[in-house]
Amino acid sequence: MNDIKKIGIVGTGVIGAGWAARALANGLDVVAWDPAPDAEEALRINIDNAWPALVKMGLFDGADRDRLTFTSDLVTLCRSVDLIQESAPENLELKIKIHKELGELAPKEVLIASSTSGLLPSDFQAESPHPERHLVGHPFNPVYLLPLCEICGGKLTSDENMNRAVEYYRAIGMYPLKLKKEVAGFLSDRLQEALWRENMHVINDGYADTKNMDDAICYGPGLRWAMMGTNEAFLLAGGDGGMRHFFKQFGPTLELPWTKLKAPELTDDLIDKFVEGTDKQRAGRSIKEMERLRDDCLIAIMQALRTYKVGAGQTIDEHDSRRIESAGNFDLVQAEAHLPATPSALYQCNVRPDWVDYNGHMSEAYYVLVFGHATDALYDHAGMGEDYRAQSKCSLYTVESHIRFLHEVNEGALLELDTQVLGVDAKRVHFCHLMKSDGIVLATTELMAVHVNTVSGRSVPMTDTEQVRYRNLMIPDPPAWVGRSIQTVNPEKAS
Ligand SMILES: NC(=O)c1ccc[n+]([C@@H]2O[C@H](COP(=O)([O-])OP(=O)(O)OC[C@H]3O[C@@H](n4cnc5c(N)ncnc54)[C@H](O)[C@@H]3O)[C@@H](O)[C@H]2O)c1
């Protein structure tokens, strides 16, 4: 059970601002503190820049940027929050000093988490009067979108506080990865840093520039990494022989001088190569512009993974279900699982935030998606679902459709799809769906589907029993709009 509702952010740079944005989008209160003179303005700008992405992901009830307070008084922050997320610069002496101070100021039940990229909590908790509540919650940039949060306790951190942290990070939509043992660099940064060292060697030795190295990730392994880690990817790389075959084939290459691992000397010349290379890649774009593009791409990748419920897609799917549930709306997952037994309203769903376009309404593509799911629900209902397709090698192919858009469809609306069969013969099913919300018909579609043998690709007759299943769903009087088509707009004809 998560008891953390008010968050303190200490250090409001790239990571602190990301934490603040994520907490606000989840309907929490945030109090922030940073010693830099222009910190509040920069923080609010960064949150504003992140907000459109958070809106696309779906805001929790009560989410409001006005719930951010910036204070110049660290005591006020420490006394008013349930958890402090320290995101100060990566420097052990500084972290020891800050954690001691936070530990002295905050009541003992307040959790104190550090965003450190690799410093050990045992090294900065010891001087606090209550070291058992200090731990690491290591996020990834952008914190407001990427779900991974590595949770690492120190020698003195209590199990109870580790579990509280896991519950909190899960409640704000993250994937809490609790480390088995405290280890410098945690898990992801050990991997990232190995890559970074090799990246520097290749560029330092003149084999490639920064863009070549980025291309070497984006067009290949990077795409795979969104849904499977290195180990699973290499399992498949071993073909049917799997991991054992992979080791047999590539194990010996570990002896070859492919990688150096020890970082090269950070000369001015090497740093210039990175600065000049990435400036060229940036092609005049501002950092904020690149951040927004990155956010849109990350959302698109996570939404694609959501369809298959893998990796980050599963995390955002579960969190979005919690968001819809907490808003008192119909739960999408439950709706899909508990379809009514009656022929009408075979399918229900909520309009997801990412289905809404620049006009603030559901975009056309998602009408097709929702109607498509309703069609599948009809086929399932008529006994022509997955098992039927696998066994009979037959399926229904849509050959024609006509959508009418009648009213605006808004984010979060509960859509109920009424399905009516209009006609059936040996090879064809003619049917329509009515998309309704609160009893109002928002859109309709009329479809013709042909029964096809999926091996030959030719239309084939359904059995009488199969036809009867659709006939049983026929309505006596088709709606007046059935059979309508778009009338040509031709001024000459009109006159
Ligand atoms: N940037 C990343 O990609 C990333 C990813 C994960 C974790 N981290 C970790 O997050 C932490 C913050 O990194 P960042 O990238 O946001 O750095 P940053 O430089 O963007 O921000 C650091 C902020 O800390 C403030 N600050 C300075 N002295 C302070 C003090 N004594 N107490 C509190 N705040 C102070 C600065 O004014 C600044 O606003 C580091 O520990 C870093 O390792 C960074």
Q: Could you give a quick summary of the protein structure above?
A:
The chain has 495 residues and is of the alpha/beta class. It is built from 19 helices and 13 strands. An 8-stranded mixed beta sheet has the order 3-2-1-4-5-6-7-8, sandwiched between helices. Strands 9-11-12-13-10 form a 5-stranded antiparallel beta sheet.
Can you tag this structure with a few keywords?
single chain; 495 residues; alpha/beta; Rossmann fold; N-(1-d-carboxylethyl)-l-norvaline Dehydrogenase, domain 2; Thiol Ester Dehydrase, Chain A; 3 domains; five-stranded antiparallel β-sheet; 19 helices; binds nicotinamide-adenine-dinucleotide
How many separate helices?
Answer: 19
Label the structural class: alpha/beta
If strands are numbered along the chain, what order do they take across the biggest sheet? 3-2-1-4-5-6-7-8
Strand share of the residues?
15-25%
Q: What overall form do the CA principal axes indicate? A: globular
Largest pleated sheet: 8 strands, mixed
Question: Could you tell me how far the N terminus lies from the C terminus, measured between alpha carbons in angstroms?
Answer: 71 Å
CATH class of the largest domain: Alpha Beta
Note poorly predicted spans.
329-343
Ligands: nicotinamide-adenine-dinucleotide
Q: Domains counted in the coordinates: how many?
A: 3
CATH superfamily of the largest domain: NAD(P)-binding Rossmann-like Domain
What is the level-2 CATH architecture name of the largest domain?
3-Layer(aba) Sandwich
The CATH topology label of the largest domain is: Rossmann fold
Number of strands: 13
Mean pLDDT: 91
